[in-house]
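Recap from last week: sequence in, structure out.
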Amino acid sequence: MKRLLQYFPGILLPLLIFMIMLSSCRKDELTLPAKVFFEFELITYEEENNLKRGGPPEDLPFGTPFKKMTIDRGTLVIESIAFDGRRDEGRDVYFSSDLAIPIIVDLESGKTNQEIGFDIPQGVYNRVELFLDLGSEDNVSLVLEGSIRNRQSVEIPLRFEYRFREWIRIMAESGNQADKIVLRKDTPSRARIVIDAPAVFQFANLGRLQTATIAIRDGDGEELLIISDVINTDIFNSMVTRLEKSFKVIFD
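Predicted structure tokens:
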């Protein structure tokens, strides 16, 4: 270094200053915010004619096997969202949302009671995890609804209720089939939180529901098939083992 300074005394100092400034600018760039908007989707579920011959005996509910089930709507309640991201360059990013009121999602339409968007430092993320704090004091964490129909075409409302408040951990994916998630300050991104109803109902197919207990709805006296922690608990317990794996987050 001393020899270089002897021969190029007027070059190395400006070059060193330039490199320091360049490094500083790069660090500043990595602190600039990229806007990310959150959206919600439901993958619907439909099962039809999935029974083997010689179904259940006639004294089981409805007297005849079910022939069709549909899950196509519901409600999701989120009290808080936490983001944990690891970047190729720059510091890792972690934050937890500070929401005035819980997020209430109509899963049929994807609409929410408030716009959900965060400023997240831009960069190339090689790993992103989201943590959803489900439920609130006044709202059920997750409800999935639809109907089930028997061979006489009698349609019975079907409702899955998950009342427990807990954190759901989801590993995020890139929507463009890339290994990494890229957030840019000049290009808003969207993160789609997807609930996969077929995955939730993997262990609650038509055959399994043949022995479900049917409730009578207060007021109108109509039948209702509820799956929750207080009714049809055996089916409920098998379904909740799939719950966390039924959530996806896709960054587009």
